[in-house]
Amino acid sequence: MSDISPTRTNLLARRSQLSLAAKGVDLLQKKRDALVQEFLALVHKALDAREQLDAAARQAHSALVLAHAFDGRQAVLNLALGVPLVDDAAAEVESVWGTRVPRLLVEWPHGAPAGILASGGQSVAAREAFQALARALVRVANTESRLRRIGEEIKKTARRVNALEQAVIPDLRTQIRYISQVLDQQEQEDIFRLKRIKRKLDASR
Q: Which of 38, 71, 81, 169 could be stapled to 75 by a disulfide with Cβ–Cβ 3.0 to 4.6 Å?
């Protein structure tokens, strides 16, 4: 404490800092609680998305095997190379309680592309199955990316709360007590000196 100047200005400054720190803890705790609720809701969505992805992968694999068996490998390759699964893709960033979360935006083809009707029925079914798999992959990517970023932000917010509660606030309170004690002692000494001066003045009259 020797590096702290025990003045009323510093006392007021420390009290102001303590008040701000307490408000910061309150805000961070509310943010953490909201993020935890969002995280728990996302866990269920992520599990559902994973289950849908597994089901889509199994269906796509089965459809591919049938397409190879009925339409031939070359027909499947021609269809795969000539018909894109997506029209366009882009990424955006959204804010969730101040947390920047990336999200993949995909434009999917509408209707049957030209030339697909000339392909075998099993190849067409395989294409549709793999497009469903691609949609499931995007859902998993977006859900798990959001889940990971929110989880990281929860940890970061919890560390900030702990730092304020366990280090910053106790340190400020210690400084406030020290400054208050020194100022009280100085005040008592001033009062004692004034009384002594008064007694001397009274005695000299």
A: 71
- Provide the token pair at 126: 């395989």
DSSP code, position 165: I
Tell me: the pLDDT tens digits for 126-137? 888 888 898 999
Is 203 part of a structural domain of the chain?
Answer: no
Structure tokens that stand for 87 in this block: 């029209």
In a domain, 44, yes or no: yes
Find, among 173, 62, 188, the residue nearest to 125 by Cα. 62
Q: Where are the beta strands (DSSP E) in 33-129?
A: 88-96, 99-107
What range defines the domain where residue 75 resides? 8-196
What's the domain count of the chain?
1
Coil, strand or helix at 90: strand
User: What is the DSSP code (8-state) at residue 166?
Assistant: I
30 in helix, strand or coil? helix
pLDDT tens string 76-110:
776 666 666 677 788 888 887 788 888 888 887 76
Positions of E strands within 9-151: 88-96, 99-107
User: Would residue 32 count as lying in a domain?
Assistant: yes
Do the beta carbons of residue 93 and residue 102 sit within 8 Å? yes
3-class DSSP state of 162: helix
Q: Is residue 100 part of a domain?
A: yes
In whole angstroms, give the CA distance from residue 124 to residue 130.
10
